[in-house]
Write a structure and sequence with these properties.
With 122 residues, the protein is mainly α. The protein has nine helices and no strands. It has one domain. The longest helix is centred in the middle third of the chain and has 20 residues.
Length: 122
Amino acid sequence: MAHLSAWERSLLALLRGESRSEAIGITDAMESELDIDEVNRRILDAAHDQTWMDVLVAFDATHIDLLEQIESMSDADLQLPYSHFQPGTDTDKPILGWIAGNTFQHYEEHLGWLRQAGVGAD
């Protein structure tokens, strides 16, 4: 859950034109030097001392903020390129792909682990 929360924080930063790297606790320079597995390891290391409740509270707060941000956007906004939100980049694919990739598609990717951990279980 800490992993999902961090990537949603990065998405929220992206949509606000802020640094995605800083939102997950690394520098922009580190992001260009680290592979995705190392970034994910650092995310988990940063959350290591958090309680389960702290992780859930942080996830819920980030998720609510993200939903509010997305709901404030028009259909046209969702088709704007990544570079619109992150000046200095040259990625011209619509931001909608990053929204999907860092939310429901990301949950699906980790669904087995979440179920194994009992997340969402009665």
